[in-house]
Amino acid sequence: MLTAQDSRWTVRPFRLGTPEEFSRLRDFLVRARYSGPEICARLGIGTIHDFRSVAEGRPLVPELDDPQALLLRLFLDAMPVEWSEVRSLLPPHDVAILEALELLHTPDDGRCCGTVLLYPTESLFIVSDRNQDPDACAVRPPPDVVYPAITRNTQRFMSILPRTPCDSFLDLCSGTGVAALAAARVAREAWAVDITERATRFARFNAQLNQIDNVNAVQGDLYEPVAGRTFDRIVAHPPYMPALRQEYAYRDGGEDGEQITRRIVVGLPDHLRPGGRFYCNCLATDRAGAPIEVRLREMLGATAGEFDIAVGQLQTFEPTGYYSRLAAERNGRFAEVEDWHRLFKRLQVEELVFCTVVLQRRNSARSVFTNRRQMGEKTGAAELEWLLTWETELAEDSEAPFGLIDARPVANPRAELRLVHRIEAGEWVTAKCWVATDLPFALEASCPVWMAAFLARCDGTRTVREHLQQLKDLGVVPEGAAEGEFVAMVRNFVGAGLLEARF
Fold it and tell me: Which fold has domain 404-502?
């Protein structure tokens, strides 16, 4: 254990209890109304991911007037409380179970502190390391600190994961095990693998606390503990921050940030079943002549022709500027910026890309696809499923788009029309026209005004063939306009998410 002499937080032990002890703890949390909806209602926030601790600027509310408020103070604010207040709010048997599982301790000042963060998320109770040190004995967490599962990054990761049934689920770099625990509701079996012993203990604690018996939490280096096993769904939220020096297991991903992600992708051919999918949120790099989607295929080696690749781009950053801003936020560590600049220049990195990666292993003799999209603010699992289904259908049947002629298209209700007008001969004339949407993915595409007018008429009452004839009757398109060209345009609109094809 690292102590104050190491200039690090003291990480506290906790105990893996008996089924009866975990049952008592779970019963206490329920009686204390320690659920996501009830906490959010009390604090006036939308989701538990909106929670801000007192250290992050939230006023010191609620008052310590009931068990829920006490739990918030100890296990979400990570603040010390007088033992007299603890005993006035909790009956002895509830204090006893918290102490029995070593979730409470007494620092030098004699007050009561939580040894962990404990919070509801994904309809689960999850325990992780504290995000600050109420013992006031150090300033930095230890290298194996276990990352909380209620951060925005974790919320984004969980939002991309399908909640559909699968046979065998593997969560790599699992931390608290939250992804495997959530998947256990729909999977026959789930595995949570992490390189640190502390994360593995947390995942086991969380599985027992939530009475989940089909999750195997094991310690090891990526696929090592599951050698010889295959899975139909593999997910990872790996360490992905570029690091000149490795410091934190949950965060640092080598000098380019891709060290762990790359090893995970390289191992997919041995562990992902045909028809299976891999989901990952990470920071990756676009390099000169080699964007991330191209390099992902290269990582797959001889099996590259078996995998579809979809990259959902969330944000991009110019690398030197990004680290200059980071240095400013870290109180002026500008000496490293030049080191980063030289590194990225050597690697020919043009952009850092915060992205969602989905790889799908084909299960039939067809061509594979590569697709890169801009994620919208609300793009999640359903939108990724739509994209993969659409692209797979096109890959399986090259004639499929021509069947759209009999479809009855419906316009995306989130579509927007953006126009630029100029004055010509005393009249406003449309000079530019765009259609845009933020779901299923974010895009803005220029088009002729008549195409935008066609989009507005797509209400599911006419077939594509009938739309084409109407446009011909109006003189918008020539009488001899080829049906195939119009269908190709409709296909592009469907593929962009601007139209839904109904039959």
Answer: Outer Surface Protein A; domain 3 (3.90.930)
